[in-house]
Amino acid sequence: MKIILWRHGRAESSSPTGEDRDRVLSPEGRNDLIDVADAVFTREDRGKPQKIFSSPFARALESAETIQGYLACERGLEVLPELESGTPLPDLLRALESAAAAHPSLVLFGHMPDLGRLADMLLDRTPGETKLRPGGLLWLELDGFGGPYRGRLVEAVNPEEISG
Questions:
Q1: Which helix (H) or strand (E) holds 6?
Q2: What is the pTM of this model?
């Protein structure tokens, strides 16, 4: 199965409500997402994911909507509450298992350090090893769920690594 962990794009530093969850993407953040998508999905050997799941936080949902508009994933976009920042890793993993059972190729838009913790576990890495910049993604391949996990990192792309 193919799982793409994608951190939301760069966001505005504040929101009109004052709530972190309401911060929206900055124009630079939106551009970074498209640059990363161009770098990853314009290759002929890359199929697009079937479905996108997103955190309910504004910046993640806006990131997911931007990429759904770019990729037009056949099964669309859905908010997955467990992708909200701060969700305990076991809860996030259960939600991922359920989502992956119906969609063997998917994207998860979320936040650090949550996505990093999830990647560390799925790739059998030392906790805290995975770093992901805003707008960056990790493309993973897994044989399945149930652990111990030995996923394979196919690609890691952060916006500042793309020459353009």
A1: strand 2-7
A2: 0.95
